[in-house]
Design a protein that fits this description.
Layout: E1 4-7, E2 10-13, E3 18-24, E4 32-39, E5 46-51, E6 57-59, E7 67-72, E8 77-82, E9 91-99, E10 111-112, E11 116-121
Parallel strand pairs: 2-11
Antiparallel strand pairs: 1-3, 3-8, 4-5, 4-9, 5-6, 7-8, 9-10, 9-11
């Protein structure tokens, strides 16, 4: 059973940094691909970053160079380090999990966390 819990969101000024965590209470974390998505008010949920079981990484163009995804299989935890934040990064951030290969589409993921709010003020 996979249960994902995000933490680390909050209010930050533009140009600041936040680190999100996603803890998996299940026993299959190291076998799963993981992803971060976000959803701003009135918008569709969108891909942010993904990491495979072996550590291969993909980013959305909008966050490339500013965000860093990582995972610690020993701790069953994934992270998203967000630097140089912009007001347009304001959203609820979700982590997601799936078996095998990482993908960039919402429909490709099986398990989802409840989300954590990140608000970037100008």
């Amino acid at each position: 059973q996979v249960q994902l819990v995000e933490s680390g969101g909050g209010l930050v000024q533009a140009g600041g940094s936040v680190r999100l965590s996603c803890a998996d209470s299940g026993s299959t974390f190291s076998s799963n691909a993981m992803g971060w998505f976000r959803q701003a008010p009135g918008k569709e949920r969108e891909f942010v970053a993904a990491i495979t079981r072996s550590g291969c990484i993909t980013y959305a163009d909008s966050v490339k160079g500013r965000f860093t995804i990582s995972r610690d299989n020993a701790k069953n935890t994934m992270y998203l380090q967000m630097n140089s934040l912009k007001p347009e990064d304001t959203a609820v951030y979700y982590c997601a999990s799936k078996r095998f290969a990482a993908v960039t589409v919402v429909s490709g993921y099986t398990y989802w966390g409840q989300g954590t709010q990140v608000t970037v003020s100008s």
